[in-house]
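Standup notes
- DV: blocked on the single-chain target, sequence here:
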Amino acid sequence: MLNLSKGTCTCKVTPGTFCETCFDNSDSCTKCDTGFTLKDGKCTCKPDSISCDVCTNDPKKCTRCKVGLTLDSVGICHCVPKNTIGCDTCKVSPFVCAVCKTGFKLEEGGACLCDPD
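- DV (later): unblocked, structure below
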């Protein structure tokens, strides 16, 4: 958005664009608010979690998770054990099992194997 001030055009940061500064005579952003990334003159949300793929207006609230993760109602991505027999809880980085179900033993590398004991 342009703002005519003292006979010259200057940049006026538009509320809600997450733009901190912009080029004179333009609505193209040059610096974004914290938590946002500059791309092609626009500010986009930069997720602060490695499990989040896309956020909209809040870097702490995810709107789409990376493949293999599930989004909860408050915008947090969770690792859900899939195709891992015996896995109770997985961890996000890397996507491996962290806690095995009763009767299974956690092996190096995050696999759960049947515990004969």
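- Follow-up: Residues 1-6 have pLDDT under 50 and may be disordered.
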